[in-house]
Write a structure and sequence with these properties.
Lyase, Ornithine Decarboxylase, Chain A, domain 1, binds pyridoxal-5'-phosphate, 9-stranded parallel beta sheet, 3 domains
């Protein structure tokens, strides 16, 4: 399918890049031809490290620089994590470094230079470069836009270039040569976090802007989505994707040829001091990255892990190969022959990395036991959905995720925790009890109760620092009276009714709303309304929605005219973020979209490239039985076998949220990648399925009710359609007794 894009291409290239880095450190072709080796290790392999920077730029940076609040904290978390990894790698290589005599005669200045710029072992400069590069880009993002950042990083790159492969050009120019000499006192090369990393980090960041961080949406598609409200443009997008793909491929070939010519010319005139940076490297990386993004592959976590471990472990394997070759007297083929050396190091590195990966995956698995029926949460999917929604909103509009109804059945504690780690600092819930629960789970920030709280529960608002919606002006008076009596101040957002006629003070009542701002014991932190026809883009719904927005805007204006300081405003929920992002205020109260699905199956399919389902629902096979023709299954003899059948009882039922109306073959489970239709009536705690066509099913096997198994998938939206309802209802009714785990 031409339209589906995922970042599997990037994952595969991570492996290739790791192998290229080994080549840089072993010079595989040096025994045969210095030119060929120069081409492989100094030109071709030079795409590897910039590629890693771009991946960081695409996946880690949007989170850190996108929104004002909490971004410094996200930066700090990234620095801590990468710093720790650097620390571990440093410790790992200290013995080898000592053996190689690298730390002899080390001065304090030398130590600084080594730790901050050069790296403590020959490939470890990459980690400090990430740290300084990311910090630098973060600082840039505080004082300029993406254009300014790109220009600044470009200038740094050019400065770096003249200290690297173009050094011969400036070496003898008086002032400039001196500048570089001084620079090289501080860092041995310019291929570091200041001159090399920022440009590629920012290029990665720009890719995230184009693709929605998850790597799926390109500018033309984004435009199509925004213009057409995501209406059936699949074919058109697919067609454009393919042509732009081959165009990118062509450009890649050209720019790579240019880079090759550039490098050989510089070499011919002996201008190079080092050879990490070329002018043509920038277009090469842009085209390469675009080609990889367009490569239609499934994301592969194993390859990602493998690439990282090969990168970390290969220098140790170089030492091992050299040592072992000497012991077994095979230095000729394994060390002196450069290709033999490269292959030996590569095989060993891949094997070692594979071992570590398997161990990591096995350890990860062992900690994951689940009982009879459970919900699995895909944190990566949630994180991508957050990135996608953030990028869709204008700068300054923050997410205020709806984690009501146990986070739409996902588990409020887990979801809110994950969101908090993504820098989310505001949440909304339906009632006081849900807010109290979040506080007890350690959730910080603003928690807005969207619904009604009884006066005898107002106590909870102040005790747990919850923000209450003022459901109308009279209710505001009740809140004021309660708070006044105790000499406290309650935090509130004022709900405004702009046509839904649910809760909220009617928007026309400016005076009554203005009165709420004058209450001594109410801190009015927000003013919001809810759009009730934003999911359909027909003429009538559009007109109504825009009318709601107009009314709300009018109210805000009137309040301002009367000298009221208008606090944070918000209108949008999931569908309006997709269909009307231009109406954004200070918050977007996203619910269903955050969980990677939409209310209907049609909408879920339309947006599936941007929103990834977070939840899977699974249960165990409890028993397997063979039944004869004429025998019945379950309550009311609702199903009778016409042939010999093998059936299984699954440990999940309607009390867990599986709709009973899916009984009798309407719905099915997935076992071992195959569909197992429900047989007879779904029971409260158990459900029988047909497994005649699925060999090898036994008690304890996993059955998937919502999620992926092999090539098959059942989405919550499929279930909703079968049950004649919307996805939101299916999810929010998932039972309290299901275990909930993040994977
Ligand atoms: C539930 C709710 C939301 C979230 O709605 P989604 O459509 O799931 O994004 C937003 N605002 C209010 C007032 C709500 O009740």
């Amino acid at each position: 399918m031409g339209t589906r894009r995922s970042c599997g291409g990037l994952d595969i290239f991570r492996m290739a890049a790791a192998l290229l880095v080994i080549a840089i450190h072993t010079s595989p072709l040096s025994s045969f031809s210095p030119e060929a080796d120069f081409f492989l290790t100094r030109i071709l392999a030079r795409v590897a490290v910039p590629f890693f920077f771009m991946v960081t730029g695409q996946f880690a940076l949007p989170d850190m620089i996108s929104r004002g609040k909490g971004s410094g904290w996200r930066l700090w978390r990234y620095l801590k994590k990468t710093g720790t990894l650097y620390g571990i790698a440093v410790c790992l290589y200290i013995p080898i470094g000592i053996y190689a005599g690298r730390y002899k005669d080390m001065t304090v200045a030398g130590l600084f230079k080594m730790v901050v710029f050069d790296g403590t072992f020959y490939h470890l400069w990459y980690f400090p470069a990430c740290l300084t590069g990311v910090a630098l880009v973060y600082l840039m993002s505080r004082c300029m836009g993406i254009k300014g950042m790109s220009i600044a990083a470009g200038i740094l790159y050019v400065i770096g270039l003249f200290g690297d492969s173009y050094y011969g050009v400036v070496e003898r120019i008086p002032g400039i040569g001196g500048f570089y000499e001084g620079l090289f006192q501080i860092c041995s090369y310019t291929r570091n976090g200041i001159f090399l990393a920022p440009i590629f980090l920012i290029l990665g960041l720009r890719m995230a802007g184009e693709t929605g961080a998850g790597g799926q949406m390109r500018p033309e598609r984004r435009a199509a989505y925004e213009a057409g409200g995501a209406s059936g443009t699949d074919k058109k997008r697919g067609g454009r994707g393919i042509s732009s793909q081959s165009f990118d491929g062509l450009l890649l070939a050209f720019s790579f040829l240019a880079m090759t010519a550039e490098a050989f010319t510089l070499r011919r005139f002996e201008l190079q001091r080092h050879d990490s940076m070329y002018l043509a490297l920038i277009p090469v990386m842009i085209c390469l990255y675009r080609v990889l993004l367009a490569w239609n592959r499934r994301p592969a976590r194993v390859l990602r892990l493998l690439g990282a471990w090969i990168y970390i472990l290969h220098p140790a394997m170089i030492v091992v190969v050299r040592g072992a070759a000497r012991i077994v007297h095979l230095s000729g083929p394994l060390v002196e022959n450069s290709l033999g050396h490269y292959l030996a190091v590569t095989v060993l590195s891949v094997a070692a990395a594979l071992g570590v990966c398997l161990l990591q995956i096995r350890l990860g698995r062992r900690t994951f036991h689940c009982g009879r029926a459970w919900v699995e949460l895909d944190g990566e999917a949630l994180s991508r959905n957050v990135d996608f929604l953030r990028l869709r909103l204008p700068v300054g509009c923050e997410l205020m995720p709806a984690v009501k109804a146990d986070a739409y059945g996902h588990g409020a504690a887990l979801i809110a925790g994950m969101l908090q780690r993504k820098g989310v600092r505001a949440f909304c819930v339906a009632c006081a009890a849900e807010g109290v629960f979040l506080r007890e789970q350690g959730i910080e920030g603003e928690i807005l109760i969207l619904g009604y709280t009884c006066p005898w529960e107002f106590e909870l608002l102040s005790r747990y620092r919850l923000t209450q919606t003022v459901v109308d002006a009279d209710y505001g008076q009740e809140l004021e009276a309660w708070a006044g009596e105790r000499g406290e101040r309650l935090h509130v957002h004022i709900g405004v009714d702009t046509g839904m006629h649910r809760i909220g003070e009617p928007w026309e009542n400016t005076e009554r709303i203005r009165g709420l701002f004058e209450k001594e014991h109410l801190a009015v932190d927000g003013l919001f309304s809810h759009l009730c026809a934003d999911d359909v883009c027909g003429a009538r719904e559009r007109e109504f929605t825009l009318g709601q927005a107009r009314s709300f805007g009018l109210l805000v204006e009137r309040l301002k005219e009367q000298g009221v300081f208008v606090p944070r405003t918000h209108l949008l929920s999931s569908y309006s973020v997709l269909n009307y992002p231009e109406l954004a205020g200070d918050y977007a109260r996203v619910g269903i979209a955050l969980y990677g699905v939409l209310s209907t199956r049609q909408d879920t399919r339309r947006w599936k490239e941007c929103l990834k389902p977070v939840l899977s629902l699974k249960a165990r096979v409890a028993a397997v039985k063979d039944i004869e023709p004429g025998e019945s299954v379950g309550y009311g003899l609702a199903f009778t076998a016409r042939r010999r059948m093998r059936i299984a009882a699954l440990s999940i039922g309607y009390a867990d949220g599986l709709p009973r109306c899916l009984s009798g073959g309407v719905g099915s489970a997935l076992i071992e990648g195959k569909r197992a239709p429900f047989l007879g009536r779904i029971c409260m705690d158990q459900t029988m399925v047909d497994i005649s066509h699925i060999p090898g099913v036994c008690p304890g096997c996993e059955a998937v009710l919502i999620g992926v198994s092999g090539k098959e998938e059942i989405t919550a939206a499929d279930l909703a359609r079968q049950a004649g309802t919307i996805t939101n209802e299916i999810l929010s009714r998932l039972g309290a007794r299901l275990e909930r785990k993040a994977v």
